[in-house]
Write a structure and sequence with these properties.
The complex is a heterodimer.
Chain A lengths: L1 H7 L7 H17 L2 H18 L1 H4 L10 H7 L19 H20 L2 H15 L1 H15 L3 H12 L3 H28 L2 H8 L4 H37 L11 H9 L7 H28 L6
Helix pairs in contact in A: 2-14, 3-6, 3-14, 6-12, 7-8, 7-10, 7-12, 8-10, 9-10, 10-12, 12-13, 12-14, 13-14
Chain B lengths: L2 H4 L2 H43 L4 H6 L5 H10 L6 H13 L13 H36 L4 H15 L2 H15 L12 H4 L9 H8 L2 H38 L2 H9 L3 H38 L5 H10 L3 H29 L5
Helix pairs in contact in B: 2-15, 6-7, 6-11, 6-13, 7-11, 8-11, 8-13, 10-11, 11-13, 13-14, 13-15, 14-15
Classes of the chains: A mainly alpha, B mainly alpha.
Keywords (chain A): Cell membrane, Membrane, Transmembrane, Transmembrane helix, Transport
Subcellular location (chain A): Cell membrane
Main location (chain A): membrane
Amino acid sequence: MTEFKAWLLAENPDSRAQATLGRSYLAWLRFYRNPLAMIGLVIVVALILMALFAPYIAPYGMTSGLTGNELALQRFQPPSAAHWFGTDGQANDVFSRIVIGSRITLLIVAIVIFTAPILGFVIGTVSGYFGGWVDGVLMRLTDIFLAFPKLVLALALAAAMGRGLESAIFAIAVTSWPAYARLARAETLTIRNTDYLAAAKLQGASHWRLITGHIMPLCLSSLIVRVTLDMAGIILTAAGLGFLGLGAQPPIPEWGAMIAEGRDYILSYWWLATFPGLAIFTVALGFNLLGDGLRDVLDPKSGA
Amino acid sequence: MMSGFTTKGGFLTVFGRAMHVQKLRPLLHFISMLAMTLFGLLLLTFVIGRLMPTDPVIAVIGDKAPEALYQKTYLEMGLDKPIVTQFGYYLNSVFHGDLGTSVRTANPVTEDILNYFPATLELATLAIIFGVLFGVPIGVLAAVKQNKWPDNLVRVFALIGHSSPIFWLAMLAIVVFYQHLDWVAAPEGRLSVMYEYTLPKVTNMVLIDTLLAGDWGAFKDAFAHIVLPASLLSYYSVAYLSRMTRSFMLDQLQQEYITTARVKGVSERAIIWKHALGNAWVPLITVIALSYASLLEGSVLTEIVFSWPGLGRYITDSLLAADMNAVLGGTIVVGFVFILLNLTSDLLYKIFDPRAK
């Protein structure tokens, strides 16, 4: 172990891989010392584990399947040892539904992460690298999208595409790429005129290679920070769409939709809406803390 | 005084004209951005309205309409014309204030929006007033007590605000402040039934209308209805504005003029509230405008929880009834106000801050 540490922290690394690993290790040490960031990391990892093993964690199914007298007896049970978070109007176990619902939250997060930032990233780096009319056109387009109201636009898109999880995810992705384009462009502009890039160019590297091999890796860390910080907002927007009845449709246990179901009973059965809301709050908080911590480690100059 | 400048008159005029163009530039940028963004918004709503899976005619008249009406509407909407011509028709009618007819309410969408929008405006405006009233002083306090407990408290407060679904907080607040403490009115609209039908509608903003009518009881009732949704809606802007105020104030407090003022013996209170905050207002104004825009949009979710008869509720109700004209009309209006505030904040920043290029 100590040998490995010494290898990681070597003053003169022998290979590129060793240098990269050494730097990552130092970053991890800095991150590890920040308790709030660690809490964030634990929450996010817990969400991923919960989503992966949902069927094993949830004590009951997504729906109870009860009817008639059984349903009348089992519905609206307050939190107890048998039902930690109580039961809803269909006698479904709220805790199990929240556990299963974590898969939907994770799905939304995963899809948005692999679409909007990548689109914005490509547009931003290309725009900053080429400059001129390419930059002009792409940035005007970005400005236009940036000035749109996200939630309302997502509403209109969801209305046109039909209600469902896919439309909600699509709407969120379409409205969130411009911020990343702006960020990537700004970063690219600072790198564009550096000597090492000129050197790479003189060696005959193509535009494509310069962008993907030399510019993109340097913009990546600030992009990761930004995406993590934005995740909380994306989860809240998705929950908002679910709450309005435009995201996942019942009986899918999407957390925002669960709060909407609990709205009618909030004055009599408080647990219906309280626990899904708490779940959303915890996950959003986790991403916020994680993002703050990552910013301190990866992007120290922009610390607030 | 002036005579000294006469010899350089020619130079000064040229210089003056150059300055003039420099000042106009942000304004030209503002106008061109506004036009382009608005065009983009209308193009997008048009595409949403035309290329969606359902038949646009059915989306407008409903699927129970007779065949003759279908044909008539089909021709009226210009659906037999090329798509570019259709877009031209669409732009023309929007600029004439015609957003079509709502299937759900059977009114022109423009008329509906004029009825619903003041409620949203009233809610968002009160929320931004709360936001500035609380957010700015809290931010100043956090900056002055940097890294001490008041600063950390403000940080936690903001973090909670950035992590909570507003509709959920609203429901919890209803349980606490209405059900248990009984401090506020029932979360059912803007006025109690006893005032609802007697109040003359002038601005359609009840706080103002009750004052105009001189009805003190109704005003108190209206306030009891609006205070909780407005406070909740303002939470996000209090959190945001306090963080921004903090960072602007920290910028100012590090400047040399502050040290100079301290050396001159100016009281700490005057330094903080007059000198530093006086300069921090410049970037703050732009942030406030941005925040106001997001409140107008964010009110959608709050309106649902409080049965508030605003634009957000109008859009969602229309959406659930698949009333496309109303949804797109609402989107255009919210989008327009949002874009206008967004770009105005940009413009204000360029005008007030000479360093911004």
